[in-house]
TrEMBL record:
Descriptive protein name: Prenyltransferase
A GO MF label: transferase activity
Keyword Electron transport among record annotations: no
Keywords of the record: Transferase
GO biological process, one term: carbohydrate metabolic process
């Protein structure tokens, strides 16, 4: 990382970021997969998150091998298996959010590298993935979270998952404009999805004890401005533990580094920079001696748990530090100023009157 970082006292310098990225790279498998930790499973969402961190850390070759893995393992319908261990599929179910996230990674790569050849090579996989995901949209606008191994589509949508998919659809539409291939079906799906994320959050499966369901509508860009501030403020005391970080579940005395980093990026998107910086400083107690990050900490027991330096946890930290330092052009990824900001809210099946005017995000 570069010269901006000293303006963020208490956060990571260039060498510390390099050490964190090295921990991710050391766990990459020969075929390019980035598992949760060495010997554990790979899923596409966390794999792409780690690939983005590799690119931020200057390890472009490793990042490209990670994207090659995505291209090599995508199935004919545009999806990926939910769990793969050392090249063997352990769960063939297709989770919508995991499939969608390639679009975010490819847009991030474009922001950082401006490599049109890379985008053209990966665009068919992005297009197939988002076509698969849009096909799982439910009548109220949320996206079914999974198509099971038997091909049955679950009739429930997860709020955090659908919020991340909204971000992916925006990234996909930005890529479609770059490629000169408009995708009106994605635009329609994004409008319906944003409407659900803003007005029908109670229709999603109830996972309200998880902090991800709290902040992800903001992180994904569906809920912004004063509406986003109100959403974050409503449950701040339920999840934020001063000096330690963010709880994963509101009833458990367990803070997790990845959720803390994601909330920091959501706050940054709202312009709440000081609070974002404070969270990142608080959670540095989870940094390991070699530069990775432990997944979480149980404070009544003064115990790191589990004792795993997960790739995606280090990746979340690298992306959050980049977002707040503005070190790479990819630092805008979650602020989203490079992404489409308007979608039609038409074809609604949620009981609301169709909105024929375009609604501005922001």
């Amino acid at each position: 990382m570069a010269a901006e970082l000293p303006a963020l006292p208490g956060l990571l310098d260039r060498d510390q970021v390099a050490a964190s990225v090295a921990v991710i790279a050391a766990q990459q498998e020969p075929d390019g997969a980035l598992p949760w930790t060495t010997g554990q499973h790979t899923d596409t969402w966390n794999h792409v998150e780690s690939a983005m961190a590799l690119l931020v850390g200057g390890r472009a070759d490793a990042a490209h091998r990670a994207y090659d893995w995505c291209l090599a393992t995508q199935r004919a319908d545009g999806s990926w298996p939910m769990r793969t261990v050392a090249g063997t599929v352990e769960d063939a179910s297709a989770e919508s959010n995991m499939s969608a996230y390639l679009a975010v990674g490819v847009w991030h790569h474009w922001l950082v590298r401006r490599d049109e050849r890379f985008v053209r090579r990966t665009w068919p996989a992005v297009r197939a993935a988002l076509d698969f995901v849009v096909g799982l949209q439910l009548p109220f606008g949320g996206i079914s979270w999974v198509r099971g191994e038997a091909g049955v589509v679950d009739d429930g949508a997860l709020l955090a998952s659908s919020s991340s998919i909204f971000h992916a659809l925006r990234a996909g539409l930005a890529l479609s404009e770059l490629m000169g291939e408009p995708q009106p079906d994605w635009e329609l799906a994004a409008g319906r999805l944003r409407h659900a994320l803003r007005h029908h959050r109670d229709t999603f499966l109830d996972k309200s004890t998880f902090s991800m369901d709290w902040y992800y509508p903001v992180l994904g860009g569906a809920v912004v401005g004063a509406e986003g501030d109100a959403l974050v403020d409503a449950r701040w005391d339920d999840f934020v533990v001063p000096g330690l970080g963010v709880r994963c579940v509101d009833t458990n005395p367990w803070v997790t580094a990845a959720e803390t980093c994601e909330l920091a990026m959501a706050l940054d998107a709202l312009g709440r920079r000081d609070e974002a910086l404070a969270l990142l400083r608080d959670v540095q107690h989870l940094r390991s001696a070699r530069g990775g990050y432990w997944t979480g900490y149980v404070w009544p027991d003064d115990a790191v748990w589990p004792r795993e330096e997960t790739t995606w946890t280090a990746a979340a930290m690298v992306l959050a530090v980049d977002a707040l330092s503005g070190t790479t052009p990819g630092s805008d990824l979650f602020r989203g100023s490079t992404l489409p900001r308007e979608f039609p809210e038409i074809g609604l099946e949620c009981g609301c009157a169709d909105r024929t005017v375009r609604q501005r995000v922001g």
